[in-house]
Amino acid sequence: VYRSLHSALSSEASIANAMIYMDHGKQQLSEPGSQIRYSASVNEVLGPPETFNAALLQGRTISEFDLANQASVAVITQSLAERLWPGENPIDRQIDVGTATGNDSAMPPATVIGVISNVPVAGLFSGQFSLSPSTDAVYLPISSGHRESAWVLVSHTDGSQAATASILEHTARLLPDNDIFVRNLESQMGEIFVLVDFGIGVTIVIGFFTFLVAIAGIYGLTKNFIDLHRHEIGTRRALGATDRRIRLTYLAKGSRQLVTGFIIANILAIPIMTLILTFFGSGFVDVQMLVILVAALATLFGAVMLAIFQPIRQILKLEPSEALRHY
User: Fold this and answer.
1) CA 143-15-176 angle, 5° bins
2) What is the per-residue pLDDT for 133?
3) Which of 122, 117, 160, 124 is nearest to 14 (CA)?
4) What are the backbone angles phi and psi of residue 117, rounded to the nearest 5°?
5) What integer pLDDT is reported at residue 92 of this predicted model?
6) What's this model's pTM, rounded to 2 decimal places?
7) pLDDT under 50 in the chain at which residues?
8) Three-class SS state of 130
9) Are 10 and 93 part of one and the same domain?
């Protein structure tokens, strides 16, 4: 039935590419004989990966011959290939998918026949959608066994209305007892990203104001620290220490405290960053994010140095005796 539906949709002039897609969500995979497990999205497909804008990078895609012979083959994403075999050719290597597709008995190891580009569609239909475009995924030939549900993905050439009509017509003819729901993939992904963008925006605003409060607090505490050492600064000047030497001494103390605080903050941030990378993926940390991080650290460092330099400058304008008198 799936092959008949795919052939019927592919023959429509309004449809550029069609794919039958079954999303089994995140599953545990391994190389045959290895105890190391890898988490990846497992999908059964019938149709070209170009349907969801994935490009073939190496090898070949799943063919009608593979489907007819129920060949144990797989196409994987570039990110998974780099995880399993970094720097090596993944073609003709094997991965053990076990019972990942819901079969009662374990499937034989699948031979990798192709590598496609990383796409964010993996996990979209199982509710395990990841925002990272480097989602690890395995694509297997669709089996003939019974499934509770399947998705039909099409890329249309002359408007979604004609493509939708074709889907409804052929699906109702070949699967008359099935409920049919048609959605625009771009709209579905857009709804997800609207919520995500809103959440990110709120987080950025809260984080920005929190950062400003932290800067003000650090500036005040550091300035107060220098004011409390007014007597010590006066004593150093009375004993012959130069103004430059005094400035460098306290700037060095402030720098050491800043580095210590930075190390502690990084240790405390590890669980939060782990959670963020788990949800968003490593693609979330890009060049722009690194630039923002460097700018924030530079601002923090500048605030600390200013909080040290400014009060010391005021104290050094006083005579040593006057500085001691204000202790």
Assistant:
1) 55
2) 47
3) 160
4) -70, 160
5) 93
6) 0.55
7) 104, 127-128, 131, 133-134, 327
8) coil
9) yes
CA atoms of 282 and 55, how far apart (whole Å): 21
In the structure encoding, which two tokens stand for residue 281, read together? 């993926």
6 contacts 64 by C-beta, under 8 angstroms: no
CB 63 within 8 A of CB 71: no
Rounded to whole angstroms, the Cα distance separating 38 from 100 reads 12
pLDDT for position 106: 64
Do 111 and 211 reside in the same domain of the chain?
no
Give the pLDDT score at 58. 92
- Answer yes or no: do 142 and 202 share one domain: no
Predicted confidence at residue 158, as pLDDT, reads 67
Quote the tokens at residue 205.
């605003």
Instruction: Determine the residue type at 51.
Output: T
What six digits make up the tokens of 53? Answer: 């804008």
Structure confidence at residue 281 (pLDDT): 57
Where in the sequence is the domain holding 309, given as residue range(s)? 189-325
Boundary (domain end) residue, out of 182, 216, 244: 182
CA-based torsion, 92, 94, 100, 103: positive or negative = positive
